[in-house]
Specification:
It contains no helices and eleven strands. Strands 2, 4, 5, 6, 9, 10 and 11 form a seven-stranded mixed β-sheet that branches. The chain is mainly β. A hairpin with a 7-residue loop joins strand 5 and strand 6. 31% of the residues are buried.
Length: 113
């Protein structure tokens, strides 16, 4: 199993980023996928989940209405579109495959002026 995140960076408050997670080594199209994040000095926390067909999307309360999780099963990729970013969204964002408890390496998102 390999999960490779990309798309992080430095953005000003109110800005947007789209994270991607390219998956390989398992049947992506039949798998729930999740995004987590970890801010400095804190535990890793769940952000969003998506069902295998793109349905059953769920979000942590603080990101509802701002973040959108999606997937492209033809590309074995899951996305996290992040809009109206706030400084408190600053964290390392991780892609997670729950069935095998596999994590990507993470991508840093920094929201600062």
């Amino acid at each position: 199993v390999q999960l490779v995140e990309s798309g992080g960076g430095l953005v000003q408050p109110g800005g947007s980023l789209r994270l991607s997670c390219a998956a390989s080594g398992f049947t992506f199209s039949s798998s729930e996928m999740r995004w987590y994040r970890q801010a400095p000095g804190t535990e890793r926390k769940w952000v969003a989940s998506i069902g295998s067909t793109g349905d059953m999307r769920r979000y942590e309360d603080s990101v509802k209405g701002r973040f959108t999780i999606s997937r492209d099963n033809a590309k074995n990729t899951v996305y996290l579109q992040m809009n109206t970013l706030k400084p408190e969204d600053t964290a390392v964002y991780y892609c997670y495959f729950p069935r095998l408890r596999s994590w990507g390496q993470g991508t840093q998102v920094t929201v600062s002026s």
